[in-house]
Amino acid sequence: MPKSKSLFYKSTAEEIIFPEGIKVIGDEAMCFCYSLKKVRLPSTVEKIKYGIFYGVSNHVVTIYFDGSVTRFKKISRPYKEIITVN
User: Fold this and answer.
1) How far apart, in whole angstroms, are the C-alpha atoms of residue 57 and residue 73?
2) What DSSP letter does each residue of the chain carry, written as one string?
3) Is 38 in contact with 62 (CB distance < 8 Å)?
4) Which of 23, 28, 24, 34 is nearest to 5 (CA)?
5) C-alpha to C-alpha distance for 12 and 34, rounded to whole angstroms
């Protein structure tokens, strides 16, 4: 089986909290995480790469971003997930 570049490939976690200091969320970071409901991104995130929720299309994931709405729009791609910016 080929190694996945996904950080949380097929994780059964319902919530993933990235620590302060993380600057990049890599390609397909949370792909096939079917149980995922919430993701918290720190204000230090500068880039969100391609397909972070690849394969997680059967439900809604709420993203909490500890930064501004304007900043989040600059670093993210359009997602159908619910976005909550603090």
Assistant:
1) 21
2) -PPP--TTTT---SEEEPPTT--EE-TTTTTT-TT--EEEE-TT--EE-TTTTTT--SS--EEEESS-HHHHHHH----SSEEEE-
3) yes
4) 28
5) 7
- pLDDT per residue as tens digits for the range 8-58: 888 999 999 999 999 998 888 988 888 898 999 999 998 888 888 888 766
Decide if 72 contacts 83 (C-beta within 8 A): yes
Count of Cβ atoms closer than 10 Å to residue 50 Cβ = 10
Q: How far apart are the first and last CA of the chain?
A: 40
Check: CB of residue 61 under 8 Å from CB of residue 37.
yes
